[in-house]
């Protein structure tokens, strides 16, 4: 029997400079088989939350487990469970695309046979076959985003964690990634992603949370959000209603 709960965020707080609470007592349970969207305005705490889930940022208080593994206590084992696409693709710029993907495959112990097939498949799907021999520093922003995504998918992780993954992608690649996210979740896996693009969340997400000033403002389906909203209107209006500043 598979694990129903893939990511558990239990009472998590992140404090910077001993005073600023970027995330404040956050509780979330993200299940397998779903696309889960983390929504919120700039500075709400979305990226901080994702960085704590992935183990990049230390948790001030609380616990996060992935597939039942505590990210703070068993970091390496927990990180084997997911693939992470950061909000900026500007990394490993002196590597060629192929060197970067092979580096990622080495990190996750992907066999030569498996990586060859996956590189062929991914480069074809993202139309990157002719760019793999070029250095990443010569890539456009969209191409850098695609090579990072390919590197993340090379070990076929059960959990995908994506921070603003569609930024800079051309329409064809954005459509492809959204299609792949849905395919991945439909196989019983999990996709977690943050976005400012509310239309994307509306079309893709099974459930969403809205984070406002580090706190959970909403958790549930978009249908339940509409029921809770003062106005039965667009997601954008409901989102603005939930995130507007209190004076």
Sheet of most strands: 6 strands, mixed
Helix content: 25-40%
- How would the global form be characterised? globular
Q: Structural class of the secondary structure composition?
A: alpha/beta
- CATH class placement of the largest domain: Alpha Beta
Radius of gyration: 18 Å
Tell me the CATH topology of the largest domain. Rossmann fold
Characterization of the model:
The protein has 247 residues and is of the alpha/beta class. It folds into two domains: 1-81 and 159-247, P-loop containing nucleotide triphosphate hydrolases (Rossmann fold, 3-Layer(aba) Sandwich), CATH 3.40.50.300; 88-157, no CATH class. It is built from nine helices and ten strands. The strands form two sheets. Strands 6-7-8-3-9-10 form a six-stranded mixed beta sheet, with helices on both faces. The protein has a four-stranded antiparallel beta sheet with strand order 2-1-4-5. Strand 7 (159-163), helix 6 and strand 8 (190-195) form a beta-alpha-beta unit. The longest helix is centred in the C-terminal third of the chain and has 16 residues, at 171-186. The protein is globular. The mean pLDDT is 88.
């Amino acid at each position: 029997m598979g694990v129903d709960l893939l990511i558990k965020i239990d009472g998590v707080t992140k404090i910077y400079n001993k005073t600023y609470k970027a995330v404040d007592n956050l509780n979330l349970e993200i299940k397998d088989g779903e696309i889960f969207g983390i929504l919120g305005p700039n500075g709400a705490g979305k990226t901080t939350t994702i960085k704590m889930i992935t183990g990049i940022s230390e948790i001030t208080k609380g616990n996060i487990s992935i597939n039942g593994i505590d990210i703070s206590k068993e970091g390496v084992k927990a990180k084997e469970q997911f693939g992470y696409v950061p909000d900026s693709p500007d990394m490993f710029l002196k590597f060629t695309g192929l060197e970067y993907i092979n580096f990622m495959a080495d990190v996750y112990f992907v066999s030569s046979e498996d990586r060859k097939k996956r590189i062929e498949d991914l480069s074809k799907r993202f139309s990157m076959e002719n760019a793999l021999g070029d250095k990443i520093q010569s890539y456009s922003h969209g191409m850098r985003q695609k090579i990072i995504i390919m590197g993340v998918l090379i070990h076929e992780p059960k959990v995908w964690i994506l921070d603003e993954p569609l930024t800079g992608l051309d329409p064809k690649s954005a459509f492809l990634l959204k299609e792949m996210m849905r395919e991945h979740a439909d196989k019983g896996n999990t996709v977690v992603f943050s976005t400012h693009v509310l239309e994307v969340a509306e079309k893709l997400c099974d459930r969403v949370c809205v984070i406002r000033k580090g706190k959970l403002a909403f958790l549930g389906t978009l249908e339940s959000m509409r029921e809770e909203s003062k106005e039965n209107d667009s997601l954008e209006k409901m989102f603005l209603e939930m995130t507007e500043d209190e004076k």
